[in-house]
Design brief:
The chain is mostly helical. The protein is 76% helix and 0% strand. Keywords: Membrane, Transmembrane, Transmembrane helix.
Amino acid sequence: FSDTGTKPPESGIFGFMINISALLGVITMYIRYLLIEKQNESSHFVRSSCNMFSLCIGLMGCIGMGIVATFQELSVPSVHDIGALVAFGSGVVYITLQSIISYKSCPQWNTYFVCHIRMAISVISCIAFIPMIVFASQISMTKIDWTPGEKDYTYHFVSAICEWTVAFGFIFFFLTFIRDFQ
């Protein structure tokens, strides 16, 4: 994922877009938090502390995105990797918690169909997150231009597929909020 933004001028565009995405994530998560708080006033389907915890986990993920954007993969790999771990790990926990909250709000505030879609995205993201970490930890060098057959190429390839799966999982999950925000 980060390979797309390591060389100038792409690195500047990549960093800027990741920071914009993190800001939009913060706004979306906060609106979702407020929406659940408002719905919860009449229905009492979830503890307010659970909603706040979910928001805090989500905000941690956005901070991780900011770290990824600021510290490029080749410049400061250890900080970049920590930011990516925080972003992806917190993101997976956030969407899982939001899926559970969605189920608790059924049928008054959500349909079971939307809940099932959210949970499916959460499960796929959780499943992809594990091999992403396992295979990324097996890579012994930090580089950009990989060629098939090269040492650690398979680890890099599998990790990258899983990373993109999780990233798109987040995008699709956030798209399920459209109806809630109307």
